[in-house]
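Our platform keeps sequence and structure together, in a single record for each protein. Such a record has a labelled line for the sequence and another for the backbone structure tokens. This encoding replaces a full spatial description with a residue-level series of whole-number codes. Below, we set out a record of this kind in full and without editing:
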Amino acid sequence: MLKVLLPVDGSENSTKAVADFIQCGGWFRENPELHLLNVQYPLDGNVSLFINQADIKQYHQEEGLKSLQSARDFLDRTGITYQYHITVGDPAGMIVRFAAEKGYDLIVMGPRGRGGLKGLLLGSVTNKVMQLSDIPVLLVK
């Protein structure tokens, strides 16, 4: 079965990429195994000196769930099964690393996320994932 990783940052563009990919479901002989991934940025500075690791982990989980909520709501409404994951680190690097470590066959992304003007033609994270990944990356628009 095809394992597909759908990175989601909570933006309308990333949720739209999930929806657009679902509409392309007829491309596949069997329904792919879908996994949503949200990558949280690490907290800056010396935060860990003042806040314990359990609270920091809980914060990242809560923020990750908020970012995944729109895509999860969409998939729940359509009745499509999926799994979701939350990690912490540099988004592009973590997406590529997570996909490789977990054996995904395809990464599906929108051309832009939250980055705004950072990438004029493609979002900076999307562009970097395309450069770093040995796994095929499908852009849906």
Summary: Residues 53-78 form the longest helix (26 residues). The chain has one domain: 3-139. The helical segments are 12-23, 47-50, 53-78, 91-102, 124-132. Residues 115-121 have pLDDT under 50 and may be disordered.
